[in-house]
Amino acid sequence: MTAALTLTLTCAGFATSARAEYIVLRSGQRLHVSGYQLLDGKYRLQIEGGIAEMQAEEVVAIEPEEVFVSNPPAVAAAKGPFRDLIEAAASRYNVDAELIASIIAAESNFEPKAISRRNARGLMQLLPTTAARFGVHNIFDPAENIDAGTHYLSQLLVLYKNDLALTLAAYNAGPLRVQKYGRVPPYAETQLYVRKVRTAYAKRKAGPTVASGSSTTSAPSAATVAAATTPAGS
After folding, report:
1. Is-above-0.70 flag for pTM?
2. CA 84 to CA 87: how far, in whole Å?
3. Across-strand partners of 45?
4. Given this model, what pLDDT does residue 196 score?
5. Which of 1, 25, 155, 224 sits in a 20 to 30 Å window from 131, CA-based?
6. How confident is the model at residue 22 (pLDDT cuts 50, 70, 90)?
């Protein structure tokens, strides 16, 4: 509250509004009141916990509760870090942007300089050999890393006929291990990784969609697919 407003615990008997009101102050602050009086150039406001008094010149408006419109929630955490790069890669390689974002979140938590204990690097945790295979010059460059990681992911989606579990298992543990077992390998780390990404992906798909100029819709390969731990391409 402003310095001009003082709070007392008296229970003065004054007329109360039939509904709650908002007292709008010169500072922009809004006070929720259930009643008020104007006496000798001062407003006495009935608020939760007692009575507040303030100079009349501090009040610029009194609004019925239903007129007050709260500030809209911040639009958008939805767009998220590196969203333009993610959507560009999604469009280029026909992969759902939300799947790419879910993998980045699990792999590096959107830290472009991340390095794993197995030397996987960047946002999508590429091994240097995998990065070289896709023509990456600077593995820590977000644009190059996302492009190469998405390119690799698109190849895995084709290889496993859009089976998300197998695709994620291969991204985490490598295609040779998936081939060896014919399923998600029985490694706790890989099984946890698959569950983690699938859960995050499902939440992203279920959340509110925020349009953006470069937004990409999911392609057939992505539609069927509902940390820095293990490097991509191992």
Report:
1. no
2. 5
3. 36, 52
4. 95
5. 224
6. low
DSSP-assigned letters across all residues of 31-70: EEEEEEEEETTEEEEEETTEEEEEEGGGEEEEEEGGG--P
Domains defined for the chain, CATH in brackets? 6-67 (2.30.30.100), 76-223 (1.10.530.10)
Q: Which residues are catalytic?
A: 107
What dihedral angle (degrees, nearest 10) is formed by the CA atoms of 149, 204, 199, 124? 20
Is 150 exposed, middle or buried (CB count within 10 Å of its CB: 0-12, 13-18, 19+)?
A: buried
Q: How confident is the model over 27-66, as pLDDT tens digits?
A: 767 777 777 788 888 888 777 667 778 888 888 777 655 4
Q: Which residue has the higher pLDDT, 80 or 222?
A: 80
* Average confidence (pLDDT) over 189-195: 95
The H-or-E segment that residue 84 falls in is helix 83-93
Q: Do 149 and 124 meet the contact criterion of CB atoms below 8 Å apart?
A: yes
Q: What is the rounded distance in angstroms from the CA atom of residue 11 to the CA atom of residue 29?
A: 24
Amino acid at 105: A
Round to whole Å and give the CA distance between 115 and 131. Answer: 14
- Write down how long the chain is: 234
